[in-house]
Design goal:
about 550 residues, alpha/beta, FAD/NAD(P)-binding domain, Glucose Oxidase, domain 3, 2 domains, 7-stranded mixed β-sheet, 7-stranded antiparallel β-sheet
Amino acid sequence: MVAQVSDVMDRVFDYVIVGGGTAGLTIAARLLETTDSTVLVLEAGAPNLDDPKILLGGGFGSTFGDAKYDWGFLTTPQKHCNDRRMLWSRGKGLGGSSAMNFYAWMKPPAADVDAWEELGNPGWNWKAYMKYTLRAEEFTAASEEQLKAYAYTHNIECRGQSGPIKTTVPLASLQINQFFLEAAQKQGLPLLQDGYGGHTTGCWQGSANLDRKSKWTRSYAATAHYLPHKDNPKFTVLTEAVCARVLFNDAMDDGNLVSTGVEFVHDGVTYKAHARKEVVLAAGALKSPQLLELSGIGRRDILEKIGVPVQLELPGVGENLQDHTYVGVSYELDPRVSHKTVDLLRDPEFAKEQVNLQDLDKENVYRLGITAFGYVPIEEKKESGTLPPGLAEQWDIQLRVLKDATLPDVEVIGFPGWLTFLSQPEPGKCYVSDYTLRDTTPIFQGHRHLDIFVENLKFARRLADTEPFKSGVIREVDPGAAARTDEEIKEYIRKCCNTCYHACGSCSMLPREKHGVVDTKLKVYGTKNLRVADMSIVPLEVAAHTQATAYCVGELSA
């Protein structure tokens, strides 16, 4: 259903959006619904529509490393992680990373979002965050059958009722969730009625963006925002179109650069598309700053190094990058209990049977989700030292959060399957993996980050040593006996941690004097009609998985 290059080359559109991902398609859909504007979306990947590897849940990570779906970026060697280069997966194709994530629908603590406003961004606060994430979501509560098995609770005021992204309580691994949540409560984490109202410290059952009305398939930007508008004559989507740079007028407008469109490459040939009103970069936290630099906007030393003439010096471009890091602990489950975990899908015959059940719209393992979440506060005191403009305020906020025992600093998840990398899972066995997350970049540059991860891994082990979790597992597989002392645990973390694909901050929404790249309207400083709208504008990482936040950025910017 997507366009041909002849529909785009040298044509003029009101809006040109670079990136048909989570935020980009959200913006496009809302513009079509609320204006008479023509909208062009350029997506570098393939359409990837009606693809079982995307639509079927349960196949967590099956698209990672596959060039059809994944950009497969690599980090630079991480000095404090044995010089490892880590796979930095980003979605490639319509829907972007919403087409390949683990479809956890999570919201951060209110204080995390209010911190954005405190950094100099009026209007970007928890109240706005709730308004626009509620607009994005349509939540379906647990069924009577699910409630018989486990008391799922929610506060309807914290859940959207009519949005395009469908969320629900997945058909969960109930026994595993019970292990996790009851053990977590015994370890001091309160069971929350609903973790979506701005208070997240504790444990609860999370939701997933699965569409019950469409055989429990993934609800993501392509199904929610592209397909409903695909036949709109004012909407043009060209896939496999790689943006090369933003084009500008020779003349400025009141000292500001004026964007006239973009240059892109399709099937090896370079073309241009023109914008009557605005160009919006929504290519993600890794690609949007790169596109600004290729267009001559960024740090002078970087631009001169790559031979790009400086159009506009903005030293914050590509800086302030933040992410979450995770490490897992895996346990073999007691085989005397019939568990439902994604490990079962490693058997090709079983997986085929589950696909058949899915086609018949019957319960199957592809409808699993990650639903057991715990958010834990820690207390830590640090000295910030001397920091560049903008970072000092961020550091102060992080210190305040670390000292606040009501706010979470680390996350622990009960994952229904094998998710560690030291050993290999054995055929026919089921596992549960506790994995822990914290924001840190460059990874473990500060030794305290690693110390905190050691304590977090110990906490995960305490959960597994607490009933009913303790009686439900046979043994710890990874890291196992190889990591008992603190130094051994640190080495396991260095060897086996990874990014959690929640990058943000590389085109930060901050005051310009604090090395901001965009203002509160997401307009690039020094330009008249160029915006960035994706996770790169988030100036300070949140204590949550970032999918809902990416939709919020798209909704609010539209």
